[in-house]
Amino acid sequence: MKNKIINIILNIIPILVMIWLIPIIQNDYILTVVYLGIILISFFIKKEKGDTFIFLFGFCAMILSEMVFISTGVETFVRNTLFGLMPLWLPFLWGYGFIVIKRGLKILDF
Fold this sequence. Notes:
Blueprint: H1 2-21, H2 28-45, H3 51-71, H4 90-107
Helix pairs in contact: 1-4, 2-4, 3-4
């Protein structure tokens, strides 16, 4: 069980770093490039079968979901570099988040 917890924490670290960088890097374009670097490094360290599909699915699904949330007033963003609605980096964060969820479920044997 201890190894499972450690593996889950190790998979979450890139997400925590990405979230930590949001207030530090104010330029959405630079932050997006940094996110891409983190994602590529993470894939270089460990890439499992289906990771690319899960990333793209999460990326696209969350763009659509966020657009619905914004259009209904549930969410608002001050940073709106993607379609004038949301931060450009947000779908990349969500896409990688989907990978972390997939890996976490695999570690927990779901």
